[in-house]
């Protein structure tokens, strides 16, 4: 990041450090008080002119150089002052541990000799003062003006107009029509003035869409007056009013008072229906918006203000009829935009050797039309495929005069300073990399990027910054996973490639990602992301490696760290953040003793068995991530010294057996994902957590080792910021452990808890706080209970008002869930997912039928409950999966009453399967997916009407797997499946066809797209016309059909076909040559196949794979044309090398 991003923050931070040190005893001890006062004065002087310097640097490169030099001095000063504060922390730890005297004596004979340290620090402070003094003198060279505030960074702002060349716009017709429909809808016509924001990231086409709407004939007819105003980041009401009035009157306006402007506008618009487009709005101030809208009180009903903006908050502040989120263009539309410019000199011809490379370039644009235009224009000047490959492989995006990056730069310049530095830091990540939200916040925190804001924790400030960058489209959230039962919460996100380019551009001198080429620019890089596969042989020669503050390894699989890299790390004594996750250090040795400035250490997914004791000397350490270090058995014994530690991640440390003593001294600790109770001495008891302000997810393991209530008193019920709690007992089967009720009471969670898990609980009765006090858990959304060896009864938990997920697993003695006396109508009002598995003695399930009628649909999964006999009739279920529940005897109407059912999976539960044809259905059911597995009783046998099968008209996916009871699939059933897209029949050994004498009557499936039939040994030949007219069929797989002797004519829509193990087949269908769309034909294990249709020679795009067809004449395998691929071809991922080869061959 440039000096303008970090300097004001750095110097402000240094001033705070100076003030703190001046007031501490350390400055007196080391005789540094005078120098610190002078340093503080110099910093104040420089800070006062920063605002003016940052403005003038755009016109004067010498000022930019001066700012860069000051930044370098400031970084060095921060390291020196950190050393002072580290000495204060060290003395605090020594006093607390009562080892002050002995340690001070020991230090006399080490490099930390206080006399030598005093001389060293005195010299360092004087050097810093002299360097700042020199820079303070130089400010007079530039005529810089002092200021009490930092002011605003100068921003370049572009103007837009309402004009658009409609023939140049691709892919926005549906968006245009949708917005116009809103404009003429009742929602707009019933209001005097409606506001509709169009929201999207820079370069996505918001302005273009607004121009299309503005110039549409329907809009011209609808609105008497149409006005276009380009606003920009300065929401100047006077300026906007001037533009509106001049647009309406077509005259220059010389008024100077806002009130006069507004009166004139009201007069000009009186009684007229108006459309006002405000393009590129940034203002989030609701009061300003309300004041601006008051200008339009005189317009006719149905008038609209159409706003384009990149910021979601602007939309929420301004909108009155909803917002429109503009999506990226499709790859096809992007390709059309790109090729118009790239191939403009080729006429109608598209050079095929360039098309393949061009489509890969377009894919990098990720749906941004501006990027496609810019790159298409660039490639239009290049006709050699080598030049195209150079652009593709070099990823050259920050082109001069490129219209995309300037639009993104405006977004960046508009950010507050603290957002700028947080965004710019992300340049250390490669393109396409998915980052973890919480780890990024910890990295920001380690580098001091998060501003202090009163009573707010740094973590909360970091979350707010992240969310704001998401709202402004700088980040894109990819996935949110809350595996709370593993103690893991992850929100992954990525940056659009153009945003990565922007981050790299603004942070060129500060942040760098070291790719596989191993190239590091000769700049003063402070933050470095490294690909483990990089060529690191010369990294030690990187001149500024000693100044690195962040070193983050990008690695997706456990690989050995090279000695080059470890040697380099030994030189990085200024590091604040070190991430070696998913790596294997040489000899599992990680040099940490010299990293006294370190705040963030990530060793997750490594093979370390022990954490080096030297980690306990890292007194600044804030975050220690040891997630999934499966070999880790214990933590360093002196971890109590880490007085600044805020986050300790231990999820997945399955062999961790105890916690170090005095964990309660870690008073700053906020995150502790796992705590293991140990009965051995020299380990912490649970009571050490009593005074810690923990938050997030907490897993308490080996609770069977709790021996007394005093040891269990952790004040869990008072820790209201804990969202997820997992309690785990580990008991051998032969052991019997009586659980003390008072001890259980000590484990009572906070009433604000959202997620609770209890595994291995060994008591006979439920804890009172779980059984009785339902109002206590009003916020509980997820409950997981597993491996309870002695409990015989469970309540239905239906009284928990917020419960969304209920999972009960492996409770061998539980016979009943729910109590009729306690269940009331309105149970499970919020339930979304219920899972019951491995309940060997469960007989009855009570309460689900009492859900409110208006409750949201939920998913039900019951697996391996062999004694379960009844399931309540449930209306509001969306997905049902029942497996290995052979004794279920469902009520009449069990399935037909499921009015929301979309997916049904039945495995090893014959009675429920047969119910499908026994129940009467009076109306169509919404079922879209039906999967039946391992049904042994004969299906489609009792009722000629076939019950509910006649109601499955919406079915799109049907699968039978290992169903010995499937003998016939009647045509009357098939005829109902008009919308079926996929039919899978797998290992149904007794299937004959649609009747005793007919094969499957597939001709009644007009929507079928995929047909797969495997290992149905008795299946008869298909009727001749079974497939010919299936015009939607694209994929067919016929495998192991040993009784069929011929394949019927196939539809011309087919793209992929597999015919294998059909031993009686001697020829392929005669109409194969007509299937022009056929891309791949795979024939295997057809011993009687003797020839292929001669006409197949015309299928020039066909890839033919032939395996083990011994009687097929060799002449049939002659490759007839260059474009045919009549052999076995295996395609790896399309790499740059493949693109080059295919392009040059073309």
Task: Write the SSE topology.
Elements: H1 3-23, H2 25-29, H3 33-56, H4 61-96, H5 100-107, H6 114-138, H7 173-183, H8 186-189, E1 193-199, H9 206-214, H10 217-222, E2 225-232, H11 237-249, H12 258-269, E3 274-281, H13 286-293, E4 303-309, H14 312-318, E5 324-325, H15 331-342, H16 352-364, H17 369-379, H18 385-394, H19 404-413, H20 417-425, E6 435-436, H21 437-446, H22 458-471, E7 476-483, E8 488-494, H23 497-506, E9 511-514, E10 527-531, E11 550-554, E12 559-560, H24 563-571, E13 577-579, E14 583-584, E15 600-602, E16 623-625, E17 647-649, E18 671-672, E19 674-676, E20 696-701, H25 709-712, E21 722-728, H26 741-746, E22 755-759, H27 768-771, E23 782-786, E24 793-794, E25 805-809, E26 816-817, E27 833-837, E28 844-845, E29 858-863, E30 877-883, E31 903-907, H28 910-918, E32 929-933, E33 957-961, H29 971-974, E34 982-986, E35 1010-1014, E36 1035-1039, E37 1056-1060, E38 1080-1084, E39 1103-1107, E40 1125-1126, H30 1136-1145
Parallel strand pairs: 1-4, 1-5, 2-3, 3-4, 9-10, 10-11, 11-13, 12-14, 13-15, 15-16, 16-17, 17-18, 19-20, 20-21, 21-22, 22-23, 23-25, 24-26, 25-27, 26-28, 27-29, 29-30, 30-31, 31-32, 32-33, 33-34, 34-35, 35-36, 36-37, 37-38, 38-39, 39-40
Antiparallel strand pairs: 6-8, 7-8
Helix pairs in contact: 1-3, 1-4, 3-6, 4-6, 7-9, 11-12, 15-16, 15-17, 16-18, 16-30, 18-30, 19-23, 21-22
Molecular structure report:
The protein has 30 helices and 40 strands. It has 1146 residues and is of the alpha/beta class. The protein has a 19-stranded parallel β-sheet, with helices on one face. Strand 7 and strand 8 form a beta hairpin.
């Amino acid at each position: 990041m440039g000096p303008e991003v970090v300097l004001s923050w750095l110097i402000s931070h240094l001033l705070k450090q100076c003030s703190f040190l001046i007031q501490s005893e350390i400055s007196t001890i080391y005789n540094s008080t005078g120098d610190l006062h002078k340093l503080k004065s110099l910093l104040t002087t420089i800070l006062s002119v920063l605002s003016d310097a940052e403005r003038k640097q755009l016109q004067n490169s010498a000022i930019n150089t001066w700012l860069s030099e000051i930044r370098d001095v400031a970084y060095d000063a921060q390291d020196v002052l950190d050393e002072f504060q580290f000495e204060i922390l060290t003395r605090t730890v020594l006093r607390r541990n009562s080892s002050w005297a002995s340690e001070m004596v020991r230090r006399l004979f080490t490099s930390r000799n206080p006399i030598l340290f005093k001389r060293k620090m005195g010299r360092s402070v004087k050097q810093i003062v002299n360097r700042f003094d020199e820079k303070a003198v130089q400010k007079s060279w530039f005529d810089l003006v002092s200021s009490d505030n930092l002011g605003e960074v100068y921003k370049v702002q572009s103007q837009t107009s309402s004009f658009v060349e409609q023939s140049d716009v691709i892919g926005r017709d549906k968006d245009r029509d949708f917005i116009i429909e809103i404009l003429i809808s009742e929602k707009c016509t019933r209001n005097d003035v409606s506001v509709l924001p169009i929201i999207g990231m820079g370069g996505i086409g918001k302005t273009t869409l607004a121009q299309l709407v503005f110039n549409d004939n329907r809009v011209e007819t609808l609105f008497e007056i149409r006005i276009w105003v380009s606003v920009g980041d300065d929401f100047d009401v006077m300026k906007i009013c001037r533009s509106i009035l001049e647009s309406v009157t077509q005259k220059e306006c010389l008024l100077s008072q806002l009130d006069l402007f507004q009166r004139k506008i009201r007069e000009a618009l009186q009684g007229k229906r108006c459309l006002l487009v405000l393009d590129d709005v940034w203002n989030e101030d609701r009061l300003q918006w309300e004041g601006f809208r008051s200008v339009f009180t005189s317009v006719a009903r149905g008038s609209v203000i159409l706003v384009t903006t990149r910021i979601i908050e602007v939309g929420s502040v301004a909108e009155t009829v909803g917002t429109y989120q503009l999506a990226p263009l499709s790859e096809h539309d992007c390709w059309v935009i790109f090729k118009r410019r790239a191939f403009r000199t080729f006429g109608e011809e598209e050079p095929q050797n360039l098309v393949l490379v061009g489509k890969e370039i377009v894919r990098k644009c990720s749906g941004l039309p501006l990027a496609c235009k810019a790159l298409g224009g660039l490639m239009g000047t290049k006709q050699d495929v080598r030049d195209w490959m150079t652009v593709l492989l070099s990823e050259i995006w920050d082109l001069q005069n490129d219209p995309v990056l300037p639009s993104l730069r405006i977004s960046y310049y508009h950010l507050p300073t603290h957002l700028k530095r947080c965004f710019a830091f992300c340049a250390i990540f490669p393109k396409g990399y998915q980052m973890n939200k919480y780890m990024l916040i910890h990295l920001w925190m380690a580098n001091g990027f998060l501003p202090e804001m009163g009573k707010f924790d740094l973590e909360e400030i970091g979350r707010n910054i992240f969310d704001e960058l998401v709202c402004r489209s700088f980040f894109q959230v990819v996935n949110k996973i809350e595996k709370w039962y593993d103690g893991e919460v992850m929100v992954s996100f990525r940056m659009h490639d153009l945003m990565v380019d922007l981050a790299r551009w603004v942070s060129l001198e500060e942040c760098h990602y070291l790719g596989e080429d191993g190239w590091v620019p000769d700049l003063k890089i402070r933050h470095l992301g490294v690909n483990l596969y990089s060529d690191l042989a010369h990294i030690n020669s990187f001149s500024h490696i000693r100044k690195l503050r962040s070193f983050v390894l990008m690695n997706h699989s456990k690989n050995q760290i090279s000695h080059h890299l470890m040697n380099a790390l030994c030189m990085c004594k200024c590091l604040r953040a070190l991430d070696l996750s998913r790596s294997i250090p040489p000899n599992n040795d990680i040099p940490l003793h010299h990293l006294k400035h370190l705040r963030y250490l990530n060793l997750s997914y490594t093979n370390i068995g022990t954490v080096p004791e030297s980690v306990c000397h890292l007194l600044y350490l804030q975050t220690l991530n040891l997630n999934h270090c499966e070999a880790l058995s214990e933590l360093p014994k002196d971890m109590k010294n880490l007085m600044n530690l805020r986050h300790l991640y231990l999820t997945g440390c399955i062999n961790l057996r105890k916690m170090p003593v005095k964990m309660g001294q870690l008073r700053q600790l906020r995150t502790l994902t796992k705590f293991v109770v140990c009965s051995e001495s020299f380990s912490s008891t649970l009571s050490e957590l009593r005074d810690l302000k923990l938050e997030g997810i907490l897993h308490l393991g080996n609770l069977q080792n709790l021996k007394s209530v005093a040891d269990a008193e952790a004040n869990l019920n008072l820790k209201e910021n804990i969202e997820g709690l997992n309690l785990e007992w580990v008991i051998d089967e032969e052991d019997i452990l009586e659980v003390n009720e008072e001890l259980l009471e000590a484990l009572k969670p906070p009433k604000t808890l959202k997620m609770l898990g209890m595994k291995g609980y060994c008591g006979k009765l439920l804890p009172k706080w779980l059984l009785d006090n339902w109002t206590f858990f009003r916020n509980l959304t997820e409950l997981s209970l597993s491996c309870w060896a002695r409990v015989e009864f469970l309540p239905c938990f239906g009284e928990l008002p917020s419960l969304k997920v209920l999972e009960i697993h492996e409770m061998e003695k539980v016979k009943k869930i729910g109590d009729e006396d306690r269940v009331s109508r309105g149970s499970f009002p919020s339930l979304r997912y219920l899972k019951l598995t491995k309940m060997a003695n469960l007989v009855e399930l009570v309460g689900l039928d009492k859900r409110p009628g208006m409750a949201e649909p939920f998913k039900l999964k019951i697996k391996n409950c062999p004694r379960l006999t009844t399931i309540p009739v449930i209306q509001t279920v969306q997905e049902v999966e029942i497996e290995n529940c052979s004794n279920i005897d469902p009520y009449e109407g069990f399935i037909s009453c499921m009015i929301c059912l979309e997916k049904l999976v039945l495995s090893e539960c014959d009675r429920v399967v047969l119910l499908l044809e026994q129940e009467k259905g009076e109306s169509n059911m919404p079922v879209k997916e039906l999967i039946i597995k391992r049904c042994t009783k004969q299906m489609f046998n009792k009722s000629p009407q076939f019950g509910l099968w006649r109601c499955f008209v919406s079915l799109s996916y049907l699968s039978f797997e290992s169903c010995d009871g499937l003998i016939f699939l009647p045509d009357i059933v098939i005829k109902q499946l008009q919308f079926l897209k996929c039919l899978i029949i797998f290992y149904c050994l007794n299937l004959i066809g649609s009747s005793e004498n007919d094969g499957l009557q597939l001709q009644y499936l007009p929507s079928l797209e995929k047909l797969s039939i495997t290992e149905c040994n008795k299946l008869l030949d298909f009727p001749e016309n079974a497939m010919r007219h299936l015009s939607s069929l694209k994929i067919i797989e016929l495998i192991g059909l040993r009784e069929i002797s011929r394949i019927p004519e196939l539809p011309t829509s087919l793209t992929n076909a597999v015919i294998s193990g059909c031993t009686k087949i001697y020829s392929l269908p005669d109409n194969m040559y007509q299937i022009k769309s056929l891309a791949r034909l795979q024939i295997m294990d057809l011993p009687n196949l003797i020839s292929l249709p001669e006409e197949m020679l015309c299928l020039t795009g066909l890839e033919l794979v032939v395996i083990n067809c011994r009687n097929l004449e060799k002449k049939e395998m002659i490759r007839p044309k260059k474009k045919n691929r009549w052999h076995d071809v295996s395609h790896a991922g399309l790499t740059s090398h493949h693109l080059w080869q295919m392009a040059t061959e073309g």
